[in-house]
Amino acid sequence: MKEKISLGIIIIVFLGVAYYAISPLLRDVEVHDEVPERVDSQSAQFVPSGFENLSEEKQKELLDIIADVNVVPAPPALDDMPPIINESAVEIKESFKIMATVGHPAEGSVRVIETADGPVIRYEDFSTINGPNLHVYLATSLDASDHIDLGPIRGTSGDINYTVPEGVDLREYKYVMYWCVPFSILFNYAELEI
User: What pLDDT is stored for residue 88 in this prediction?
Assistant: First the structure.
């Protein structure tokens, strides 16, 4: 009798774990986020040093000239003319291929887009399988021992944006990845060559 009860408990536990691990594979979540408006370094306004010391009238004249010409004047020295955009901003125009892992097919690419609100990680033409409690990580290595958690995944296919928290320097993190939290399994990743 005890053997039957033990066997029954083992079967119930096994079925529960199997359902937890397998059922997400059957759910495909398609997301189509708009491309975020980016800060274009070509159109970022440069302000010469000492600009704030000019009279309001002179400041207005200079800004009107810049607006009329619609050209950003070339700075004599970059140190003398800091851009309005954040100095630590990372602007990446190319995309990075998403790499699959064994048993976890994935395709698409990742871009980093600098917006007025900070960097956005954008998955494009993305497709992967779902899994239990998947999160998006920025990590220094593929074992995710040092990572920033961007939160639960928002989808398994489409074009998906993830906002990078304020103060995170993307140059410190080499990978963006889909990570299975309960089983510590890497589902897919892209190497950010910053």
Answer: 44
**Burial, 144: exposed, middle or buried (Cβ in 10 Å; 0-12, 13-18, 19+)?**
buried
For the chain, the farthest-separated pair of C-alpha atoms sits apart, in whole angstroms, at: 94
Rounded to 10 degrees, the C-alpha dihedral 155/38/118/149 comes to 20
Number of alpha carbons in the 13 Å side-chain half-sphere of residue 40: 4
Q: How far apart are CA 7 and CA 92, in angstroms?
A: 56
User: Could you report the per-residue pLDDT of 118-166, keeping only the tens digit for each?
Assistant: 999 999 999 999 988 999 999 999 999 999 999 999 999 999 999 999 9
C-beta separation of 192 from 95 below 8 A: no
Residues (pLDDT < 70) of the chain are 16-27, 39-54, 59, 62-63, 65-93
Instruction: Using alpha carbons only, give the angle 23, 25, 26 rounded to the nearest 5 degrees.
Output: 75
Task: Order the strands of the 30-32 sheet from edge to edge.
Answer: 30-32, 157-163, 118-128, 106-115, 96-100, 185-191, 175-180, 134-139, 147-152
State both tokens at 83. Answer: 């851009």
pTM, two decimal places: 0.64
Q: What is the DSSP string of 117-182?
A: TEEEEEEEEEEE---TTEEEEEESSTT-SSEEEEEE---SEEEEEEEPPTT--GGG--EEEEEETT
Residue type, 135: H
